[in-house]
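Question (not urgent): is this output format expected?
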Amino acid sequence: MLTERYVDGVNQRHQTEFNNISKDILPWLEDVAAENNCKIERKEWKSKYNSYVIYDYEPFCSDGFEINLVVSSFSREHLDFLKYLYENKINTIEYLNNCVIN
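Got this back:
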């Protein structure tokens, strides 16, 4: 799930939030964000069971946590492209998993 926050004005950073990112895709997303002039503003591990448990580092046992990432950029196009790449990667993984199951 993606959440977008755009702020109008001069030299304002635009933000996009990626929710519930897979632990396997996280390093790829961080690398692609850096390649596309995007800055990772916040990375957090949020408990699926207790809404008040949020870590800004990877917990020892990361099962039961969802990873949320806030990415910002001066250019909205960079964020849109990053969102496009992320959605395509998720769709490709789902397609390949369906091929293996069938």
